[in-house]
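Protocol step 4 of 6: record predicted structures for both targets in the notebook before any analysis. Target 1:
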Amino acid sequence: MPGGSSGGSAAAVAARLCAAATGTDTGGSIRQPASLCGFTGLKPTYGVVSRYGMIAFASSLDQAGPMAKSAEDCALMMNVMAGFDERDSTSLNRDKEDYTRDLNKPLQGLKIGLPKEFFAEGLDTGVGKVIEDAIAEYKKLGAEIVDISLPNTGLSIPVYYVLAPAEASSNLSRYDGVRYGHRTAEYTDLMDMYCKSRAEGFGAEVKRRILIGTYVLSAGYYDAYYLKAQQIRRLIAQDFEEAFKKCDVIMGPAAPSTAFKAGEKVDDPVAMYLQDIYTISTNLAGLPGMSVPAGFSTSADGKALPVGLQIIGNYFDEARMLNVAHQYQQVTDWHAQAPNLDKPEGTA
């Protein structure tokens, strides 16, 4: 699997069919594909890049960003993509930035926070080894390692799968076959058209999320689920606020494993959801995050598959993150390598 939901863009960039592409990240949908496919992907701070033109999934989480081979390419993309857009009510009116300005700045004295929750049970051993090697490389570049904790990380999955489906339920209600979306060919009355159009137009996972979202927003369950999830979301953001008092950037794996086979997890939605355990919390907090190629790990069937190092920054700190990634890519060539499953060493 190339990862989701920006898997099409991911596959195109990884196969070198294009120099760069745009992706959308709601809970990790730029960073997870970047990790699984072996290229650089950046999710900016919420509101920095316009959401105009997207089909909204979860409006308070969705964020567009660049996907490219290197951090330098992503910085060039950000120079074009970032900026205020009056057509997007969530767009931030900020001064224009040059995201390439700090690319060549040395990393001496940089404080890197390592959350203990990112290196606990559930992380594939091979992936963990690749991340440890990447951290060691940063030490050589002059960075200082700081142990931190994000205690509410484990709650990010349940919080996300209450809030995101709730917003999806609302956003996708317009796709009824009247003005938006697919319209069924045969129907007897208006209600029949609604039912058939949505039944035919939405896939199984979309229907699952609409049903969950409608349930948690219903009168008897709003306070118990949706409101409680919003309160925990605030706690997750506070965890990051405390962490950034001790460090400049946070690092860890972008995904708990390498790419899995197509269809392997289709009958186990929870296993699929857990693939986003390290990425969702940044969306809930509105923070920027990126995935950088850090090496390869051998799968159970002997395939060498890409591993992504996740870099999380404070609000509007994309230029520093790109600098941190670029300096790593000056002393390693993982971003220049492409997976080749026909070769034992796994790279082309």
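Target 2:
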Amino acid sequence: MTDLVVGGGAVGTLLAWALATGGREVAIVRRRLDGPPRPARITIVDVAGRRADASVTEVGRPSDLSAAPALIVFAVKMFDLAEAVESCAVWSSSTALTVSNGIGAEEIVGGLREARLIAGSVTSAVEMGPDGAVARLNRGGIGLAPVAGDVGPLITEILEAVAGAGLRVARCDDAAAMKWSKLVGNLVGNATSAILDLSPGEIYADAGAYRIERRQLLEAFAVMHRLGLDPVPLPGADIRLLRLGLRLPVQLGRPIIHRVVAGARGRKDPSLRLHARSGSGPSEVGWLNGAVHREARRLGRHAPVNRRLTELVEEVLADPDRRDWFRGRPDRLVADVERPA
């Protein structure tokens, strides 16, 4: 049976390559394709610069497959997820795998499909080059956890295939703990980089910006604690170490975390900064910092820094003058976030 990857960006291409390299038959949706399914080669460039190809089938739409896929991987941004799920309604019995960043993907998919469901968290930093090859910028991988139905055997098969392709893997028992752990990692230097147009390394080098970062992360850890979720170590992303660093006195913790953050992403900018630079379409911030704020409110708590960072990202996306005001000025961000209510 075929695995279907919906989402032809860098993450979707990486997963299609990994599954195919690991011995599975894979099709990937290419919306630009106008015609019948066709064979194709996809290329991954590893951190050492080595190129590796894999054979897949390209389809213009999910219904172009001749039979139901064993697995549908939804590798799209959260704001495109519902549409992607609806495009696969013809294959309503296939197991779904979500890999979107943020909190809420499993609820979106579960609300539209009654089939088996697996949650995934991808920790590989990747970017697509002009030739369509996808570069791996770190040595991350993927974690998987069951959500609905008897998916244990399929999780084993997927992890074996991905590990066979050379990616690091983790099997998690608690999907919520895994997704919240990945969320905390996604928060690091993300919203602040979009607002300030600075790299995470530059942000963590500034004492005031680090104070804002530390507060947003501690709010997220507090929500996890209230939910009864323990941090989960994922391939190349163990947020338990981040939590330890945040608990150190600032003068000790900031230099340590600065070094870790500056080198963690390879050369890739955070997703929200990339989005702010592109200047088009919706952003994921509502499912990242916004998710921390919403869940804190639901629990009767507050996450004011995550709330304000969510608002500021939306402001700089909507108003170029607002973005110019904050660009390269951590002091202005600190003054705004720390202004008394």
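Step 5 preliminary note on target 2. The two ends are 57 Å apart (CA to CA). Residues 207-227 form the longest helix (21 residues).
Proceed to step 6 after PI sign-off.
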